[in-house]
Amino acid sequence: ESIADQAFVEQWCQQMHIPVKLHVPTHVESTEGVQSAARKIRYQWFQTLKQEHTELAFIATAHHADDQAETVLLHLIRSSDPLALAAMKPREDTTSLLRPFLHVSRSAITAWMEQEGIPFRDDSSNAKPDYLRNRLRHEILPLLEDIRAGSGAHIARWADRWQPISLQLKNEIDLALQRCYQTEDKDCGILRVSDWKEEPLADEILYHLAQRWHISARAVPEIKGLCDETVQSGGRFESSHTTLTRQGDLLHWKATIDQNTSAS
């Protein structure tokens, strides 16, 4: 089917005198799943294209408002980071990406293409219930629309509101870390517990540090317990990557394996 999709695009672009660039990965493997691996390969290739064609100002993708609503729901049910609710941005200057259809529904795009006589194909994998995103698309969002018309667009608009909020929140967390946490070297860090307790975003600081040290978000309540005033020196938390040790007012973070290796 993908070969037929490729031929379809090539033929239409040839008719419209539009140049086509193709990338066929020789190997796709990921512990996060095929879709996630393919997404990474796709965006890496976009950056390669940008480097090869310096005259390109931006690379545009066709994500639409329905994709945005799905992304918000995905992050809501499986992400531990509230900043993730900002979902996809219409423009990313660091990666030179544009998403010009992010505020347009799929149905509106389809209607316009039919009106203009522009042919298109549907990827059959988008209908498979094997993937969480597809179940949100075909089961949850239609149900929400049935409960309240316009729910999908409403959810997508939440991403717009979260984007400036997430940037501000990230900046506040970074400033808070400067006040209560110091990096000794790439494998060691120290959290000053009494200073940490004064921070309004104390919990978010721990979630941020857990992510930085490759610790599951589910472990944050246990880490927070190590910061309790009743915990004596010597209290410990251990993960496969990091050991935390309480010493008086300090919570020491130390890598048990190379963090760069674990992240690769």
Please tell me about this protein's structure:
Strands 4-5-8-7-6 form a five-stranded antiparallel β-sheet. A three-stranded mixed β-sheet has the order 1-3-2, with no helix packed on it. The radius of gyration is 23 Å and the shape is elongated. The protein folds into two domains: 167 residues, HUPs (Rossmann fold); 78 residues, Uridine Diphospho-n-acetylenolpyruvylglucosamine Reductase, domain 3, CATH 3.30.465. The protein is an alpha+beta fold and 264 residues long. The model has no long low-confidence stretch (mean pLDDT 91). The protein starts with a helix and ends with a helix. The chain is built from ten helices and eight strands. Helix 3 crosses helix 5 and helix 3 packs across helix 6.
Descriptive tags:
single chain; alpha+beta; Rossmann fold; Uridine Diphospho-n-acetylenolpyruvylglucosamine Reductase, domain 3; 2 domains; three-stranded mixed β-sheet
